[in-house]
Design the sequence.
């Protein structure tokens, strides 16, 4: 059933206009509405500069290079928005991915704005590794002609918070670069501070470049927390998610499985969300009501119903950061807990160390905003239409005598059911796509829920009739209880779509067997496939699996060869 | 005569299998399914391996987008049920590492491993093979595991019957090297002559074939339920030869009266040195005369009833080097095991352990592993699913006894429970219509309450249950037999002989737990008050008129109570 779209009575149109628009909308398809949305945004964007650009534009536009290193796409998205803002200010902007350049080339750039994220335990994003290593090398180029500023993205939950941005910032200065403004380090709620910082940085560069009038008051403030809807796919965001109906919600793992993995089907009807296989869906979760209650009790704020709702929907009440420990010690006047103590502990543990009556503001001031969780989409629109399928593994574990639950996974798996709605938005993953050439063979390594995007890949290749060979390497704990989508792989093998399948189940025998063991056993065939042009994809756990797979691939292909595959876009990873 | 009927599908599979190879080896490497190709599922039986699935999980699998939870059962070939401690340890290790963690002693004196996923089959069989164990012909249309009485305290007699059972097993073992190639990785000799099966031929037997050797008065191997049995005839302390019994068999199909269990016929006597020849030619008679079109009429028992016993014996005698002599006659006393310790004339000790339903798990499993670790004696599985630890030197007895106590293995059981046998049935057996192993213990608990009130709790009464009518636990040879009809419902049979010499008769159809107890309660009460001295329960129910006596397989379905006639 198509959803009827009606303009609200308060829309800024006359009654006749509203009626006319409604008559169009009510008979339109979602595709038509998505197109219209994009069209209007385009018209808007095309007209905007004339209104926004200062009356006397600079004679020669100042050059500005925005360089980003991205893993999850946040740095890239931020860079894209910065470019737009800079262009409106009259800069001649270039947007460059660290994956596509070298320090040598960047050293030629007069104005450089860097946006760098830190990944895992203080690592650069995978695709930025080469750039980072060259920059840190002894023979790195001098940057004395370059004026620069660094925006570091990170996550306070990790010890090496914003490590990569910090090291790049220090390195550029050491190599002779001139810092325009001080580095900013941003946590998960980066939008507002990043926006302010970018405004300031652009303003400073403008002034120093002397190309725009210092007294110019028409600097556009870019509200990064509310990006413009310039594309239909970007119209839904973390703060303005699409409410997608759950149309199917089934447990895929057996009743005796050690894990609880669900197959979720979401209806995207009316959203205009046009994902590609490889993309992720951001889910805005709700906290476990029981944990919300415990946090409120620990803070002495049990009776505050408004706060209860806010904690459930808007604040991160699990992840514990060093800053929170420090703030909490100051607020309560108690000794600061050590990092060793904090390992494996959460906000509730911190609150329970010192009985204290907080005010609602004190408590929310202590908490970070609730971050969305991202799930690789396990479907192709060409196969399933206006749906997105997700594979969600419920995260449950115990630390320090307390049961812990993954916020989004347990919310989705246990609190939601078919017919409920889930707040979602699209997060494109342009660096994890099927090869442009339909005939290119692909090797997909996806144990556990890491197999999700590959189901999407196979659906896409089936729907498009892509002739390339497909090889899937899957792994989990038990063959009998954890063989996700087993019947679908069987059908695709029968149809000839899935050329080869290898499996590794770790708990079925005395010696643990993982996907890297299956890869090693198949090393000769891997060489043959890669010689035939195959691209290798890895999706899933970053901490152990992706590293072990990486090491095994180095053993099989050797490091230079694997690096070359990566640079050629034939070794792609989506790990988390 | 338009008597040419098409061969059954299994005959074609065997014919095309290249002596039992099929495409099993290829199928083992296919990762996307836990099963094997349909034809290969028939062929693996000849290698002692059944494809099954966990039926407890069937309902949920469809929703989970996974195929059935396919698992394999592997059955050892252990003539006479005798294992060394090292062999037992290998079996225990493989059960824990590659199976579902349990061992299952069977009514054919062997061990079954359950819950083996496909990728663990080869490692399991190779692990067993390191201790010279194999699973060849433990299932399939061949001679299965050869049974022999377990009376190790009768040293000479036991040695003779087990040696004979081993010789029969070896003589009737398929010659094909398929098992070694597929499971152990033996290379095929290139250019070598393709093997032949001099006894079986390319298509083996029409159906399974079972052989037992008994040492009277112990009929633990149920000689009348086997296709072929040899009953030792002792004269002046030596075994003079064997009476030969042919045509026993248990399987039938509900609602098909042309299928029936049958007690074997005593057809003569042979000298020890002629036993192998007799065994071979009873097998070749069945090979040549058995029904290869209808597998439900293919066992030797139907062959004999079809061509007539006299014709069969005459045909057999023509093939034998030495014709059978008239039977000497023998006397059996019981089919059950005598639990506890026994000492033989040489001063060695033997202990018979009650293993309920033959399922070795948990504490009992750990205890048996510890005892096997002492590397003393022999482990002998009985046809009643129990275990005898035999040949324990006097100096080791105390240590073994202490371990038995520590692990609860010296547990005693009442007269009904210690004479109970159940097949595996749910959740692994594909044939099961109802529970068996998982249900019988609780039913016995209910019956024990009734027996105790009547003072019958120490009476030896045999009770056997199967989840389907195929009869793995030999329920039609039991004083009380329960055969699954559908979930929770059983047919109740009564009147089998305590010594295993007479079939039973249907007493009640489609009875549930409540009705089984209600049916048996008044019969127990009558037995308590009206039995004659020494009269067994099976004999009593016939004399008291609860059921008619079954004389032969062909009247098994006759003479039912009026209410049970269709």
Sequence:
């Amino acid at each position: 059933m198509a959803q009827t779209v009606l303009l609200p009575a308060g829309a800024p149109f006359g009654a006749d206009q509203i009626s006319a628009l409604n008559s169009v909308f009510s008979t339109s398809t979602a595709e038509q509405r998505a197109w219209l949305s994009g069209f209007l945004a385009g018209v808007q964007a095309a007209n905007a500069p004339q209104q926004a650009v200062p009356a006397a534009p600079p004679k020669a536009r100042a050059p500005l290079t925005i360089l980003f290193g991205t893993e999850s796409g946040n740095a890239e998205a931020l860079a894209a928005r910065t470019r737009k803002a800079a262009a409106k200010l009259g800069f001649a902007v270039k947007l460059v991915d660290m994956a596509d350049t070298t320090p040598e080339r960047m050293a030629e750039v007069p104005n450089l704005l860097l946006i760098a994220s830190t990944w895992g335990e203080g690592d650069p994003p995978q695709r930025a590794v080469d750039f980072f290593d060259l920059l840190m090398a002894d023979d790195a180029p001098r940057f004395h002609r370059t004026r620069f500023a660094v925006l570091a993205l990170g996550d306070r939950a990790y010890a090496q918070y914003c490590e990569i941005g910090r090291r790049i910032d220090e390195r550029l200065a050491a190599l002779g670069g001139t810092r325009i403004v001080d580095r900013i380090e941003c946590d998960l709620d980066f939008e507002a501070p990043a926006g302010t910082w970018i405004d300031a940085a652009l303003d400073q560069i403008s002034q120093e470049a002397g190309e725009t009038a210092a007294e110019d008051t028409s600097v556009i403030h870019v509200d990064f927390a509310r990006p413009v809807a310039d594309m239909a796919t970007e119209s839904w965001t973390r703060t303005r998610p699409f409410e997608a109906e759950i149309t199917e919600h089934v447990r895929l793992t057996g009743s005796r499985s050690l894990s609880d993995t669900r197959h979720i089907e979401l209806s995207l009807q009316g959203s205009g969300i046009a994902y590609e296989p490889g993309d992720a869906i951001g889910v805005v979760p709700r906290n476990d009501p029981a944990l919300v209650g415990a946090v409120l009790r620990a803070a002495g704020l049990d009776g505050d119903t408004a706060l209860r709702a806010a904690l459930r929907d808007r604040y991160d009440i699990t992840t514990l950061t060093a800053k929170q420990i420090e703030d909490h010690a100051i607020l309560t006047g108690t000794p600061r807990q050590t990092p060793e103590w904090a390992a494996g502990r959460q906000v509730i543990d911190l609150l329970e160390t010192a009985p204290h009556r907080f005010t609602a503001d004190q408590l929310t001031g202590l908490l970070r905003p609730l971050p969305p969780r991202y799930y690789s989409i396990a479907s192709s629109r060409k196969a399933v239409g206006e749906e997105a399928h997700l594979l969600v593994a419920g995260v449950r574990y115990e630390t320090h005598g307390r049961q812990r639950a993954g916020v989004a996974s347990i919310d989705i798996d246990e609190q939601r059911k078919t017919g409920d709605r889930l707040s979602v938005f699209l997060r494109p993953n342009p660096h994890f796509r099927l090869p442009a050439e339909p005939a290119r063979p692909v090797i997909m390594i996806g144990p556990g829920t890491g197999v999700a995007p590959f189901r999407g890949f196979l659906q896409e290749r089936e729907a498009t009739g892509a002739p390339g060979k497909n090889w899937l390497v899957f792994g989990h704990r038990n063959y009998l209880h954890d063989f996700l989508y087993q019947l679908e792989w069987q059908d695709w093998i029968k149809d000839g779509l899935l050329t080869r399948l290898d499996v590794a189940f770790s708990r079925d025998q005395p010696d643990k067997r993982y996907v890297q063991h299956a890869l090693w056993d198949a090393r000769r065939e891997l060489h043959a496939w890669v010689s035939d042009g195959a691209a290798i994809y890895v999706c899933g756990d970053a901490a152990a699996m992706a590293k072990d797979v990486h090491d095994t691939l180095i053993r099989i292909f050797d490091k230079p060869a694997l690096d070359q595959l990566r640079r050629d876009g034939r070794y792609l990873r989506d790990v988390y | 005569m338009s008597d040419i009927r098409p061969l059954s599908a299994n005959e074609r599979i065997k014919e095309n299998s290249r002596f039992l190879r099929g495409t099993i080896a290829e199928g083992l490497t296919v990762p996307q399914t836990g099963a094997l190709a349909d034809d290969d599922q028939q062929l693996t039986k000849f290698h002692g391996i059944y494809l099954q699935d966990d039926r407890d999980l069937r309902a949920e699998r469809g929703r989970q987008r996974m195929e059935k939870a396919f698992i394999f059962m592997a059955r050892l070939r252990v003539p006479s049920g005798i294992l060394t401690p090292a062999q037992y340890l290998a079996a225990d290790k493989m059960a824990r590492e590659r199976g579902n963690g349990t061992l299952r002693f069977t009514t054919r004196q062997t061990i079954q491993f359950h819950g083996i996923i496909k990728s663990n089959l080869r490692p399991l069989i190779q692990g067993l093979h390191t201790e010279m164990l194999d699973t060849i012909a433990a299932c399939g249309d061949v001679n299965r595991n050869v049974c022999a009485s377990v009376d190790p305290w009768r040293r000479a007699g036991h040695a003779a019957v087990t040696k004979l059972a081993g010789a029969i097993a070896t003589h009737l073992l398929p010659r094909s090297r398929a098992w070694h190639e597929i499971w152990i990785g033996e290379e095929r000799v290139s250019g070598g002559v393709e093997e032949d099966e001099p006894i079986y031929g390319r298509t083996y037997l029409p159906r399974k074939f079972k052989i037992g050797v008994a040492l009277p008065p112990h009929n633990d191997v149920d000689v009348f339920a086997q296709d072929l049995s040899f009953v030792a005839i002792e004269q002046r302390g030596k075994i003079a030869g064997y009476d030969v019994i042919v045509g026993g068999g248990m399987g039938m199909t509900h609602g098909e009266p042309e299928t029936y269990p049958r007690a074997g016929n005593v057809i003569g006597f042979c000298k020890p040195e002629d036993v192998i020849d007799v065994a071979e030619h009873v097998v070749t008679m069945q090979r040549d005369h058995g029904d290869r079109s209808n597998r439900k009429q293919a066992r030797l028992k139907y062959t004999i009833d079809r061509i007539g016993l006299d014709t069969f014996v005459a045909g057999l005698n023509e093939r034998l080097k030495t014709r059978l002599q008239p039977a000497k006659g023998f006397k059996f006393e019981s089919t059950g095991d005598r639990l506890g310790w026994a000492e033989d004339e040489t001063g060695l000790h033997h202990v018979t352990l009650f293993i309920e339903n033959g399922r070795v798990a948990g504490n009992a499993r750990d205890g048996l592993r510890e005892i096997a670790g002492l590397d003393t004696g022999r482990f002998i599985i009985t046809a009643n699913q129990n275990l005898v630890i035999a040949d324990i030197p006097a100096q080791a007895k105390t240590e073994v006894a202490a371990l038995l106590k520590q692990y609860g293995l010296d547990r005693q059981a009442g007269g009904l429970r210690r004479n109970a046998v159940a097949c595996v049935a749910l959740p692994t057996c594909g044939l099961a219509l109802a529970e068996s192993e998982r249900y019988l213990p609780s039913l016995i608990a209910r019956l024990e309450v009734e027996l105790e009130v009547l003072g019958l709790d120490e009476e030896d009464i045999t009770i056997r249950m199967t989840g389907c009518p195929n009869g793995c636990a030999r329920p039609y040879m039991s004083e009380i037999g329960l055969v699954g009809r559908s979930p929770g419902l059983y047919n109740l049979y009564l009147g089998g002989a305590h010594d295993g010499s007479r079939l039973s008769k249907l007493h009640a159809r489609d009875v549930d737990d409540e009705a089984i107890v209600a049916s048996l309660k008044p019969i127990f009460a009558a037995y308590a008050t009206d039995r004659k001295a020494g009269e067994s329960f099976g004999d009593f129910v016939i004399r008291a008129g609860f059921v008619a006596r079954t004389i032969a397989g062909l009247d098994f379905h006759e003479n039912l109570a009026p209410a049970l006639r269709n």
In short: Chain B has a mean pLDDT of 96. The first helix of chain B runs from residue 9 to 15. Residues 141 and 208 of chain B are 4 Å apart (CA to CA).
